[in-house]
TrEMBL record:
It holds the Pfam family Ig_3. Residues 1-18 form the signal peptide. This is Lachesin-like. PANTHER family: IG-LIKE DOMAIN-CONTAINING PROTEIN. Residues 7-117, 122-199 form the Ig-like domain. SMART domains: IG, IGc2. It comes from Branchiostoma floridae (Florida lancelet). It comes from the Eukaryota.
């Protein structure tokens, strides 16, 4: 009978695992250890297969910390909440606490897994804020974007038309090419933009 019940319970635990938590680089995240604690236990806060931090209740002490999290992790309060400061992109993963009852051999209780994703907002840089070209000349503007995950980059022309990609090439500039060009970046977690003003010299000769 129990042989059939236990896999079912394990399946329920899988389904109850939470959705992804998105956090900005540098911010703080905490995870709750929602299990019942035995009287003496060893607690491992896990990220996948990695032991992030280990706590021994008998000593009321941290006994190990992963080098990936040195100086940035702590165990907070009676519920043994995991706190991570100064989040890094590489901190992403599946976190859960694993509690071993030291009075009972092989008795281990895991909390539900919570998935962490760490992002940065786009920052946009352009080499010029104004650029002068002679009529008939060619112009190339390259928009440099840093973000995680990567961004979709769009150039908006003075007439409102848009082109995708970080590099904008204009051939045979005319007076109609003049005005503000805007580079925008969007990675789903934030947007960034910068402007460059194009001046076309001698652009009215034909009129
Ligand atoms: C530290 O993090 C890296 C990248 O996520 C991982 O490959 C490595 O296994 C981690 N270290 C330990 C001790 O798990
Ligand atoms: C450049 O634009 C001008 C004005 O529209 C036009 O007369 C000329 O033929 C164009 N030159 C080239 C090489 O496309
Ligand atoms: C980037 O562009 C692709 C293709 O058009 C689209 O599927 C995706 O949702 C866009 N991402 C963002 C963050 O706007």
């Amino acid at each position: 009978m129990w042989k059939f019940v236990l896999p079912f319970v394990a399946l329920l635990a899988t389904f109850s695992d939470g959705q992804t938590i998105n956090k900005e680089v540098g911010s703080f995240q905490q995870f709750e250890c929602d299990v019942n604690f035995p009287s003496t236990y060893l607690l491992n806060w896990m990220r996948g297969d990695e032991i992030v931090i280990r706590y021994l209740s008998a000593n009321d002490a941290i006994t190990a910390t992963s080098a990936n999290f040195t100086g940035r992790v702590s165990i907070i309060g009676a519920q043994r909440t995991l706190g991570i400061t100064s989040l890094r992109i590489t901190d992403a993963g599946q976190f859960f606490c694993s509690v071993h009852d030291l009075a009972t051999v092989n008795d281990e209780t895991n909390s539900a897994r919570q998935t962490l994703f760490v992002y940065t907002r786009p920052t946009v840089t352009l080499p010029y804020s104004e650029y002068v070209v002679d009529a008939g000349g060619d112009v190339t503007f390259t928009c440099t974007v840093t973000s995680y995950p990567s961004s979709n980059v769009t150039w908006e022309h003075p007439d409102g038309t848009r082109s995708t990609g970080d590099v904008l090439r204009l051939r045979n500039a005319t007076s109609q090419s003049q005005g503000q060009y805007r580079c925008s970046a969007d990675n789903g977690f934030g947007t960034g933009m910068q402007y460059v003003n194009l001046v076309v010299r001698g652009g009215n000769i034909s009129s």
